[in-house]
Design a protein that fits this description.
The structure holds 3 protein chains of 3 kinds. Chain A has helices at about 5-10, 25-30, 35-65, 70-80, 85-105, 115-125, 130-155, 155-180, 195-205. By secondary structure, chain A is an all-alpha fold. Chain A is globular, with a radius of gyration of 16 Å. The N and C termini of chain A lie far apart (about 35 Å). Chain B is mostly beta strands. Chain B has one domain (about 1-180). Chain B has 1 helix and 18 strands. By secondary structure, chain C is of the alpha/beta class. Chain C has a single domain, classed as P-loop containing nucleotide triphosphate hydrolases (Rossmann fold, 3-Layer(aba) Sandwich). Chain C contains 9 helices and 7 strands; from the N terminus they run E-H-E-H-E-H-H-E-E-H-H-E-H-H-E-H. Chain C has a 7-stranded parallel β-sheet, with helices on both faces. The chains are: A mainly alpha, B mainly beta, C alpha/beta. Chains in contact: A-B, A-C. Chain B: It is found in: Cytoplasm. Chain B: Pfam families: UreD (PF01774). Chain B: Its main location: cytoplasm.
């Protein structure tokens, strides 16, 4: 396993479309639930335990068994009741596959897989293991919205990054839990939901004016 | 306390439904209610004790044969309580099997997570192609003015052999970030309603923090988050009523 | 692993990836794909009005589509729709997460998806115009996204803009100095702008434009016509 390769995969500057997605933060800001750094902290903690954990588990699983990508993809469909979030996940998956093809030799993963599935398959192609795939997924689940919070609310970027540093041990723990379940049947993989992310995504999709794709 | 209950509903061959099995034990006591006419049979969970409490292990099995129409409700909210310290989490497992042409409507009163409780609700619903379910679960995080206890709900609804909806929700002190803006945003009540099968409504925003969403498979999920259970009911109850009036699937 | 055998969605132009390490920015299908022209420039310099003029001028002779990158998602696309210059299915709006320059330069994936989706749904196209959101003088397009880029500045921004330079002014394949009708009103000296642009840009062309007097944006449209003609050999 190459640590530097993991950094390449998890880098927020990887050109895979992430900058245009707020991970539900734009909707939470509009609803008045997120105004300051403290609120961002609560948002990120909840997102990490729910979407982050599910993404980590599916990334780990897709890394461990790339051939099962279609079953895993359906598993994420069943865990993503919001059509807007399914579209956002597939758009990011497609963008990640595009970037991944330029970097590594990818096996078949479909044209527009869910993002965690794409991430797991890329990790495998890059020679990384399920734990690294899970770390990248869990980290990405919070680093994207954190960056969106700085851009949307003009928050102190040091304060927001200190939230991420504070979450790092939890990211590691969640990634380890996720990787330990990488071989579980798809139905048994984590399914932690976040009702407000689902509802917010559906509201957000109806806005005429929005800065982020999701 | 360990307890089990079982309901088996079958078409009676005359356009109605009969209960082939209706067996419960405290605290899962069952009563057939409602009129004896019409195609639908209603059963109420009448409850036999406060709870569940830590250490309780409860199981309810529902089965609707081809063409049967079964509605299950409860007379009162389920109040998850702390119980004996050190005992394992209380657990309620519900398993439902719904045959082709059958309809099961699960419309209980809310589950209330009293402070200090530790409860796990596991639900597995298997619907054959052509069957229909309306599956409602409401959760209130703590009684009035008290913090929420720990509740973990774990739901799988399968339709025609594929997993249609898979959802877990954890609230309470052991669930980091559950009251943050991504999950419940400080709200005290959350409800969900899964509709699976034919004759589905259009997706819609339901006002406030509530939406009716089209699942990837043949089903819908309505989710509502509210400061109290009334807001959740205001969003979800109309969908249950509307669904009730729909004709039985062919 | 057989990347050359992988399946694609039914709405995609059939293609193969003969080399797993293939640069995904190269055209996905081997045949001629649309010429992609980026149109950038500061806020208010007239990018959207230029795109509308080009659609009117070229819409009848070229199969064209537009991708917009407004910071406010649909603003520019709505302008084009309201003005009836292009049917809705030929316009895609890309969200940029507050960073229009990122979407056209550092992370072009959403724009590439939009261009590919347009080509997949509309069939072969001759020209795709990719309009950037209004940004600053440093915003340029990635060569992974576009073939040629136009940078639009306006005289109301001051006649010092070409002298200040910046990657847009200096390196764009065509510099458009727009709103020349306003020059007398804002005291801008077009000859100064012309001289400074030449000094900055060497052989690269610069054109002056006033859409008040020239609703068809003739010098820009002609420049694009020449590019399209150079790409598609006459039958």
């Amino acid at each position: 396993m190459s640590l530097a390769t993991l950094l390449v995969l998890a880098d927020g500057r990887l050109p895979s479309g992430g900058h245009a997605h707020s991970g539900g933060l734009e909707a939470a800001v509009a609803a008045g639930r997120v105004r300051e750094v403290r609120d961002v902290g609560g948002f990120l903690r909840g997102r990490l335990q729910t979407t982050g954990f599910v993404s980590a588990a599916f990334a780990a699983s897709a890394c461990a068994r790339t051939g099962a990508f279609m079953d895993l993809d359906r598993g994420l469909d069943a865990r993503t009741p919001s059509p807007a979030l399914r579209r956002a996940s597939r758009a990011q998956g497609r963008a990640l596959v595009r970037a991944g093809r330029a970097m590594w030799a990818l096996p078949d993963v479909g044209r527009e897989p869910h993002h965690p599935v794409a991430l797991g398959v890329l990790a495998a192609a890059a020679g990384l293991g399920p734990l690294e795939a899970a770390v990248a997924a869990a980290h990405g689940a919070v680093s994207g919205p954190a960056s969106a919070a700085v851009r949307l609310l003009g928050l102190d970027p040091y304060a927001v990054h200190s939230l991420l540093a504070g979450l790092a041990p939890e990211i590691d723990r969640i990634a380890a839990d996720a990787a330990a379940r990488a071989d579980d049947p798809v139905d048994a993989l984590p399914a932690a939901g976040a009702p407000l992310l689902d509802i917010g995504a559906e509201l957000h999709a109806t806005w005429e004016v929005r800065l982020f794709a999701s | 306390m360990r307890a089990g209950a079982r309901i088996v509903a079958e078409a009676d061959g005359r356009g109605g439904t009969r209960l082939a099995v209706l067996r419960g034990e405290s605290p899962l006591l069952l009563r057939r209610t409602g009129p004896r006419t019409g195609g639908d049979v209603t059963v109420h969970l009448v409850g036999g004790a406060a709870g569940p409490l830590r250490g309780d292990d409860l199981r309810l099995d529902l089965e609707a044969g081809p063409g049967a129409r079964l509605t299950v409700r409860s007379v009162a909210a389920q109040l998850a309580l702390p119980g004996r310290p050190g005992a394992p989490a209380s657990r309620l497992e519900i398993r439902a099997v719904v045959a082709a042409g059958a309809t099961v409507r699960w419309l209980p009163e809310p589950l209330i997570a009293a402070a200090g409780c530790d409860h796990r609700a596991v639900t597995r619903v298997e619907v054959e192609a052509g069957g229909a379910v309306l599956w409602r679960d409401d959760l209130v995080c703590g009684r009035h003015d008290e913090p929420s206890g720990d509740v973990h709900t774990d739901l799988i609804i399968r339709y025609a052999g594929s997993t249609l909806h898979r959802h877990e929700l954890a609230v309470g002190p052991r669930a980091p970030g559950w009251s943050g803006a991504a999950v419940l945003g400080g709200a005290r009540a959350v409800g969900s309603l899964v509709l699976a099968g034919p004759d589905l409504p259009e997706a819609a925003l339901l006002g406030g923090d509530a939406a009716l969403m089209t699942l990837a498979g043949p089903g819908m999920l309505a989710t509502a988050v509210g400061q109290d259970i009334r807001q959740v009911r205001a969003a979800l109850d109309p969908l249950c009523v509307e669904r009730q009036r729909l004709p039985a699937p062919a | 692993m057989h990347p050359e055998l992988h399946e694609h969605g039914p709405d995609e132009v059939p293609h193969t990836h003969p080399d797993p390490g293939v640069d995904p920015h190269t055209p996905l299908h081997p045949g001629p794909r649309a010429l992609r022209i980026g149109i950038g420039g500061p806020v208010g310099s007239g990018k959207t009005a230029l795109v509308a003029a080009l659609c009117r001028a070229l819409g009848a002779e070229l199969r064209l589509a537009v991708v917009t990158n407004d910071i406010y998602t649909t603003e520019d696309a709505d302008f084009l729709l309201r003005n009836g210059v292009l049917p809705a299915d030929r316009i895609r709006a890309v969200e940029t997460g507050c960073c229009p320059h990122t979407a056209i330069r550092d992370d072009i994936s959403a724009n590439l998806d939009a261009v590919e989706d347009l080509e997949a749904t509309l069939g072969p196209l001759d020209l795709v115009l990719v309009e950037s959101g209004g940004d600053n003088l440093t915003a340029t397009f990635s060569k992974g996204l576009i073939d040629q880029q136009i940078f639009v500045v306006d005289v109301a921004g001051g006649d010092k803009v070409p002298r200040k330079g910046g990657p847009g002014v200096t390196t764009a394949d065509l510099l458009v100095i727009n709103k020349t009708d306003l020059a007398p009103l804002v005291g801008a000296d077009l000859s100064v702008m012309d001289r400074d642009a030449r000094a900055r840009r060497g052989e690269l062309p610069t054109v002056f434009l006033s859409l008040v007097g020239d609703k068809a944006a003739t010098p820009v449209a002609d420049w694009i016509r020449a590019l399209v003609a150079a790409r598609v050999p006459a039958a």
